[in-house]
Design goal:
By secondary structure, the protein is α/β, with parallel strands linked by helices. The protein is built from 6 helices and 7 strands, in the order H-E-H-E-H-E-H-E-H-E-H-E-E. This is Caffeoyl-CoA O-methyltransferase.
């Protein structure tokens, strides 16, 4: 799923509201949320963009170049968990990100959270896309749904439950598009 237009607007506004300069995006796909973030950052702001597939980044690259924000993007191809683990090995990286947007493999959302929580500063934001997962998170387990929705539904429910109980964050789940959960780190 691509980021919806209303989500892109929200991301842009959030980045501006918190005066973000150092951000990260896990899962690039069409590059729309990446573009929204880069446009909202000040001229010296950066977004580290992680994706396992460079083709996804290149899909949105013409628009990123046309918008004149390529200098704000540090694209890294490869497994995001490996990159996050490498960042965490250096204590100086902890608490340095203002905003992280996660829209990658849903089966790793909880693994991403357990890492990015230490990389985001207190007062910073983490956004998780698709946390309503086509409404399946509120349906009974035997309800009819597409195979991909059924296959990943449990992972989305698991991360939603975890986020709701994580005392290090305040959360707000929005019903924009397929659901976006915002987490503000409070400790």
């Amino acid at each position: 799923m691509a980021t919806a237009a209303d989500e892109g607007q929200l991301i842009s506004m959030l980045v501006k509201l918190i005066n973000a300069k150092n951000t990260m995006e896990i899962g690039v796909y069409t590059g729309y949320s990446l573009l929204s973030t880069a446009l909202a950052l000040p001229s010296d702001g950066k977004v580290v963009a992680l994706d396992i597939n460079r083709e996804y980044y290149e899909l949105g690259l013409p628009m990123i170049e046309k918008a004149g924000v390529i200098h704000k993007i540090d694209f890294r191809e490869g497994p995001a968990l490996l990159f996050l683990d490498q960042l965490l090995q250096d204590e100086n990286n902890k608490g340095t990100f203002d905003f992280v947007f996660v829209d990658a493999d849903k089966n790793n959302y909880l693994n991403y959270h357990k890492r990015v929580i230490d990389l985001v500063k207190v007062g910073g934001l983490i956004g998780y896309d698709n946390t309503l997962w086509s409404g399946s998170v509120a349906l009974p387990p035997d309800a009819p749904m597409l195979a991909i929705i059924r296959d990943l539904r449990g992972h989305v429910i698991e991360v939603n439950k975890y986020l709701a109980q994580d005392s290090r964050i305040e959360i707000c789940q929005l019903t924009l598009s397929d659901g976006i959960t915002l987490c503000r780190r409070i400790s």
